[in-house]
Inverse folding.
């Protein structure tokens, strides 16, 4: 390993470069409020538009072929620019970058809400992704540098993770309510007051120093990471309608992987890399990155199942289907604040991550037992599954978010925060495409092979097949977490990573 990829031990002379001086208690909690509001914006926007999309398509005259760009434009810009956003955040100073991200996101949201044609709408969604790519790593970096005392850090990351864990479910609920009782445009306008609240909160956020020498952007790394990540995410999106064997999908996947491999090769040799390899080449952090990626693969497939199953099989309205997910959001809130938040620093991160993954896997397994003849579905299947997956997600997100940024030099906090957000985005995109494709293939196969198979029975078979794969993914993530337990225990006691 290159000597520059080894993290320096924490010494008295190195301490100023690691974390800033602790802020007064009142300012610390204002920081949490502002960062949580921003996190809600970013996560909410990943799902709220999904519910509003049919109404937006009708209102703006989008074609069926082009409507996917309402989702894809945001995902590509957000995912492709996250690593650059983390570096720019450090160069500007995380608080300044945070405010710029908030103001830009609010302006892009207002533009999207006022869109008069599909092109304007898609452009606004891409702009939202651009500013979210700056906002997300800046917010997590501020949280990391502000909360350094273990007990307060646990509470802060618990609240932050609760917002992230519940945000996707709340987005479906809010999207249904706003679309049904107001207009699809309010699914975008609602971001403006939320962003303003966060901007007001930044007045109390302690200032931080820009990273010394951070203005020299790794251009080659930025281009390779943006194009490689965007190609992979776009391939996942295209796999849903075209299938994984389609030439376009395969070309995008191969091209994206090659670009990301070239990015890794460039970063090893770059004097000021966009993503220093020491961020990834640490056993506990690598385990946290992989665990949260696999968690999001399974959970976004789970949310897709809940949306389709409750509406197409159970006949729920979009609003009722969204409200059902409140159970999941409340369980995630409980798990992240009252379990993970309180135990942070008292137990090893793996002691939270591993049970959380197993709880989510158990919730997924409950739904694999569904049949077309199942009765009392809400109390016997949906509620246990929603509670267990919510608790699992709530227990996994705080320790992984804290672990990937723990004991990092100040110069690397933005890169680590960006990589964490990128892991979630990659997992969400892959999970939606992969499990949806599996469900569709299993449904078609069941209709073709089973005698007297009804469309409902075939759909349930497809859903349970996809959820079985999700169950296996969560078990694999648990194995990863168990394998990374030893380094995590040392970090959990507050020692410096070497």
């Amino acid at each position: 390993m290159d000597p520059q990829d080894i993290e320096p031990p924490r010494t008295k002379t190195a301490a100023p470069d690691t974390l800033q001086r602790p802020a007064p208690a009142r300012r610390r909690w204002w920081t949490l409020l502002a960062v949580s509001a921003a996190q809600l914006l970013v996560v909410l926007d990943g799902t709220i538009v999904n519910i509003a999309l049919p109404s937006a398509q009708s209102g703006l005259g989008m074609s069926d072929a082009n409507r996917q760009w309402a989702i894809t434009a945001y995902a590509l810009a957000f995912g492709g620019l996250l690593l650059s956003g983390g570096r720019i955040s450090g160069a500007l100073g995380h608080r300044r970058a945070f405010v710029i991200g908030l103001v830009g996101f609010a302006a892009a949201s207002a533009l999207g809400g006022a869109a008069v044609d599909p092109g304007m709408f898609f452009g606004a969604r891409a702009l939202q992704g651009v500013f979210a790519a700056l906002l997300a790593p800046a917010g997590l970096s501020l949280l990391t540098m502000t909360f350094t005392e273990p007990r307060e850090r646990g509470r802060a990351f618990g609240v932050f993770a609760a917002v992230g864990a519940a945000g996707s479910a709340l987005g479906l609920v809010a999207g249904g309510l706003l679309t049904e009782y107001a207009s699809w445009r309010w699914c975008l306008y609602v971001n403006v007051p939320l962003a303003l609240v966060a901007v007001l909160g930044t007045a109390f956020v302690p200032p931080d120093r820009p990273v010394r020498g951070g203005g020299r952007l790794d251009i080659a790394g930025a281009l390779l990471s943006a194009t490689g990540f965007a190609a992979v995410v776009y391939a996942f999106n295209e796999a849903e309608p075209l299938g994984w064997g389609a030439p376009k999908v395969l070309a995008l996947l191969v091209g994206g992987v090659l670009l990301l491999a070239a990015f890794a090769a460039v970063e090893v040799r770059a004097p000021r890399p966009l993503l220093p390899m020491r961020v990834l080449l640490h056993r506990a952090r690598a385990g946290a990155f992989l665990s949260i990626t696999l968690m999001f693969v399974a959970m976004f497939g789970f949310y897709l199942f809940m949306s389709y199953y409750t509406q197409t099989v159970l006949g729920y309205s979009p609003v009722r289907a969204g409200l059902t997910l409140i159970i999941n959001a409340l369980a995630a809130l409980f798990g992240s604040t009252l379990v993970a938040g309180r135990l942070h620093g008292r137990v090893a991160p793996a002691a939270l991550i591993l049970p959380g993954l197993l709880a989510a896997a158990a919730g997924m397994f409950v739904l694999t037992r569904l049949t077309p003849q199942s009765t009392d579905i809400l109390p016997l299947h949906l509620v246990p599954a929603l509670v267990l997956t919510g608790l699992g997600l709530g227990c996994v997100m705080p320790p992984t978010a804290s672990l990937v940024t723990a004991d990092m030099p100040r110069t690397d906090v933005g890169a680590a925060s960006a990589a964490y957000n990128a892991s979630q985005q990659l997992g969400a995109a892959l999970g939606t495409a992969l499990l949806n494709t599996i469900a569709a293939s299993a449904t078609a196969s069941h209709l073709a092979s089973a005698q007297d198979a009804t469309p409902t029975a075939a759909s349930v078979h497809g859903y349970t097949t996809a959820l079985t794969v999700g169950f296996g993914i969560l078990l694999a993530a648990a194995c990863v977490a168990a394998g990374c337990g030893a380094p995590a225990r040392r970090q959990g006691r507050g020692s410096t990573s070497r």
